[in-house]
Amino acid sequence: MKPEEILRIVDAIHRDKNIDKETVFQAIEAALVTALSRQYGEGSEVTIAIDRINGRVAGSYNGAPLDTAELSGRIGAQTAKQVIIQKIREAERDAIHDEFEEQVGQMVSGVVTRFEGATATVTLGTHEAILPRSEQIPGESYHPNERIRATIFEVRKVGSRVKIILSRIRPQLVQRLFEQEIPEIADGVIEIRAIAREPGYRSKVAVISSDNRIDCVGACVGVRGNRIKNIVEELGGERIDIVRWSDDLQVLVPNALQPAEIDEVILCQMLGRGIVLVREDQLSLAIGRRGQNVRLASKLCGWDIEIMTREELDQQIERAIVGFSSIEGLDESLAERLVGEGFLSYDDLSVIEPADLMEMGGLTEEQVDTIVAEAEDRASQAEAAAADERRKQREADRIAKATADADAADALAAGQVEEPGMAEAAPESEPGA
């Protein structure tokens, strides 16, 4: 193998495969060592070094130097070629992996080329990626030659290939679309602080402006909603709520629960929970369809949020004080303090930090253990009772439905019996007409 040929090979691979020259040199050296080891025997000690400037090969066998002529004569050409190709493929795989690993979470644009089951294969320039069904927005369908945008979710090596997995359901896609469609975000004037998303249905995006003269919500919506409209269309009609961020949870929580009107927010620091009080007519709006609004608001704020009316809170407080006071070692004054910290159920009490309860009530460790154990037992009983009640309700609903279906069938049958008699009566009335 002539020095100029080695340099030419290295340069060609570097340009064609975008692999660092040093990596190619090392791959060739490793290939030559492997080929020579097979010639001399696996137990032999072979070293090879290629001059990075002139391409000359120097080597040794068990400490004895090998001249260039011997290297050329002893190396099996086919073996060396196979090993070099394998090493180059590994280097190419590593280069592709490193290239896309740096782009994880970034948005890319590609063309759908084919389908294997529900998995779409997407071409990204000269590389292929896959978009599994689990990473597709529910209800979306794709067609060959259709251009789609997605974020790179995962990159991993699989044998001699690199598997690039795309996603359209991660919050990063929403963020990248905002950065692309809204210049103020790309410029850093408006910052996205948090995103909560249920793909294909609804997202909440919390934004804040570093310039008081710029309305962060208005800038994201755009004139006549043109900016947000482009994002919604890209996400297949997914609803997007833009929320004004605040470090004050008393402000952020009502913002996150919009469009519902909030009366009061009670923050329970020990539980990381916010109790939100609303009027009766705002209750369903605050909770949202199937709990979606409050669920997304909780993710956005990082706090558990519980929606209730003032009357419901008063009832829970009363039940909690009575229930806690009935636990041995826990008097009414401590029960009131616990309720004041937001502990409203046995389940809440069962997860309290023992040190906190010891400090609040001046209790010993043994007393706290007894109280927590009792709370856990009562929480289990309450959960079992609730499950039984749900089972009874389902059974009652099933019986009611079966009864309604039977009544409807009877009514239909009765109507079918009467119809012939009515048909016979009609001709009898004609003579007297």
Instruction: Write the CATH fold name of the largest domain.
Output: N Utilization Substance Protein A, Chain:P, domain 4
Proportion of strand residues? 15-25%
Strand order of the largest sheet: 6-5-4-7-8
Distance between the termini: 118 Å
Fourth-tier CATH superfamily name of the largest domain: NusA, N-terminal domain
Helix content: 40-55%
Q: How many separate domains make up the residues?
A: 4
**The CATH top-level class label of the largest domain:** Alpha Beta
CATH level-two architecture of the largest domain: 2-Layer Sandwich
Rg, rounded, reads 36 Å
Q: Mean of residue pLDDT?
A: 85
The largest pleated sheet is described as:
5 strands, antiparallel
Structural class assignment: alpha+beta
Give the number of helices. Answer: 16
Descriptive notes:
The chain has 433 residues and is an alpha+beta fold. It folds into four domains: 98 residues, 2-Layer Sandwich (N Utilization Substance Protein A, Chain:P, domain 4), CATH 3.30.1480; 65 residues, Nucleic acid-binding proteins (OB fold (Dihydrolipoamide Acetyltransferase, E2P)), CATH 2.40.50; 76 residues, K homology (KH) domain (GMP Synthetase, Chain A, domain 3); 83 residues, Orthogonal Bundle (DNA polymerase, domain 1). It is 52% helix and 21% strand. It is built from 16 helices and 14 strands. The strands form four sheets. A five-stranded antiparallel sheet has the order 6-5-4-7-8. A three-stranded antiparallel sheet has the order 1-2-3. A hairpin with a 3-residue loop joins β9 and β10. The protein is elongated and about 95 Å long. The C terminus is likely disordered.
